[in-house]
Amino acid sequence: MRAAGWAVAALLLGYGLLSIHGPAVLGGFDLVPGDAGDTRIMAFLLESGWRAMGGEGDFRSPPMFFPTAGTRAFTDAHLLWLPLYGGLRVLGLDMLQSLSALLVLLLAGGYLAALWLFRAALGLGPASAGIGAFLFVFGNALTQKLNHGQLAGVAVLPVILLLLHAAWRHDRTWLAVVAGALTGLLAATSFVVAWFFLFIAGLAWGVGLLRERAVRRYWRLPVAFVGGLVLGLGPFFWIYGAQILHGPRWGLGMAYHYRPVLSDLLNLGPEHPVWGGVLLWFGVPALREDSLGERMMGFSPPVWVLAGLGFWLLRGRRRAELRALAWAAVAAVAVILLQFDYGLHAYAWRVAAMLPGGGAIRTSFRSMLVILLPVAALVAIALQGMRRTWLLLACAVLLDSGLVHPPYGVGARAERLAMAEAPALPQGCAAFALAPGPEAGRVAWMLESDALMLVLHWRVPTLNGNSSWAPDGWALLDPSEPGYARALAAWVRANGLTGVCLYDPLEQRFLPAAETWALLTL
User: Fold this and answer.
1) How far apart are CA 139 and CA 404, in angstroms?
2) Do residues 236 and 354 share a domain?
3) Which side of the chain, N or C, has fewer Cβ within a 10 Å radius?
4) Which is nearest to 364 in space by CA: 294, 411, 428?
């Protein structure tokens, strides 16, 4: 039976990689999940970071929004992925192929780590642990959100917990230090994932502190973890320090705009071929038009039911890891409850927003990606305890995962062709900007990402850029806007720039020197 369980676990990994992510795995990594905006921002940041490690440019200042310094702090820095990305580049993959392979490797590693965690810490069999790991890595929530590739950082969480588990079981304090350092590095890679992990883990530890006797290890390992976290946050503050001290802030209104409603806990998105129609039949409303996909991270009814059953099965368990899972589940519920608007100006999230880093969270429902880890563990426990109906329940769980495919919308081959068709830089061009003009058949944020790809091709900086934030006084988002030309001239004048050339993306040519001079001296 054990061999059969391991066969199930192996088949689940193969199914997740080849079916759900077949466009990448079977296509030589020529397709990347996401769109031509956010996906190429991540590729730009990884590639510019990799080049900076080789001595080309400043790591903290990717060549966008020129000449602004510290532009990596405008979004996730992707620090933790750079060694793996660089290894893929050394193997001969181009930047988008490397990004695609990076995401696939993270998912595969996350599955194996979660499988190991559920077996080592919870004592589950390989089949039940495999179902839980599959739900965590290949579930609807993460599959849909791979258009924001930094969120694949959730795959690191089982590794952190494995380190903490080994530190607890073998009384190895240094492993807790390593776990803390890894969490700090994750903050400079996927801030939202690291922040919610720390928030939920802190709450869970507090609940446990109320329930358990304060034995020496119960205090010593968290202190060691925090010490490692401080060390791991060194690169984070090196990158984001100036932004934290002097940069703009998200207001609570931004988080309120993205707040979930109760139906979002079950909402799997309109594309789900099973539960989408079932929920609509029962009157559960579909996503609101303003959701922008940020609420497509709910769990299917069987997942919630089995998670509740798994929590019930934890009663009376003496094993420390199982009690810790119960505390984590309680903490996860508390975090979920904080996110709803209860009327009468009782928006509870304002409490979380006062915590360090909480004000930087604008899409709180992404917490479901982190919460899915304890939920998947509870589901696996329920499956382990329901042997007679295990197969039926497992199939119900899989309906939450394997039928929703990520949008593989970016092609590495198409990007290579586009760069091959780009004209050569004019002589003396030290930086470029997109020329003002009519709409080029692409929305503004996509044009800005076009400029980032051209930066990597031409190896000169751009005055344009695409990120969560923009520098003060920068108004160069849309070249088709009437005020773009004057904003461009004002930016050049304010920064004392010379050697700026203008690129017309519609006609794919550089403007003549006389026309460029006339525009930049408005």
Assistant:
1) 8
2) yes
3) N
4) 294
Which residues, 6+ apart, have CB-to-CB distance to 115 below 8 Å?
9, 126, 129, 130, 133
Q: Give 85-131 pLDDT, tens digit per residue.
A: 999 999 999 999 999 999 999 999 999 999 999 999 999 999 889 99
> Contact at 8 Å (CB) between 255 and 362?
yes
CA–CA dist 343, 160 (Å, integer): 38
pLDDT of amino acid 417 = 92
Q: Please tell me the distance from the alpha carbon of residue 519 to that of residue 489, in angstroms, as a whole number.
A: 7
Peptide linkage before 67 cis (omega within 30 of 0)? yes
Tokens of 425: 């830089």
Contact criterion met (CB below 8 Å) for 43 and 64: no
H helices within 297-385, ranges in order? 301-313, 320-337, 349-353, 367-385
**Domain around 440:** 424-520
Helix (H, G, I), strand (E, B) or coil at 59: coil
- By DSSP bridging, strand 509-510 and strand 31-32 are unpaired
pLDDT in tens, 163-177: 999 998 888 999 999
Ranges of residues in the chain whose predicted pLDDT is under 50: none
346 burial (CB, 10 Å; 0-12 / 13-18 / 19+) is: exposed
How many domains are there within the chain? 2
The verdict on 243 and 382 lying in the same domain is yes
Q: Assess contact for 354 and 106: CB atoms under 8 A.
A: no
R_g of the chain, CA atoms, integer Å:
24
Instruction: Tell me, yes or no, whether 173 and 321 share the same domain.
Output: yes
pTM above 0.85, yes or no: yes
Q: What tokens does 282 get?
A: 């029962």
pLDDT of residue 272: 66
How far apart are alpha carbons 285 and 276 in whole angstroms? 10
Helix (H, G, I), strand (E, B) or coil at 34: strand
- Contacting residues for 473 by C-beta, under 8 A, at least 6 apart: 490, 491, 494
Say if strands 431-434 and 500-504 run parallel, antiparallel, or are unpaired.
parallel
Query: For residue 49, is it within any domain?
Result: no
pLDDT at res. 262: 81
Quote the CA–CA distance of 260 and 366 in Å, as a whole number: 10
Q: Kind of pairing, strands 410-411 and 509-510?
A: unpaired
Q: Which of 398, 415, 442 is the last residue of a domain?
A: 398
pLDDT of 97 reads 96
CA atoms of 511 and 507, how far apart (whole Å): 10
Instruction: Of 86, 84, 116, give the one whose Cα is nearest residue 103.
Output: 84
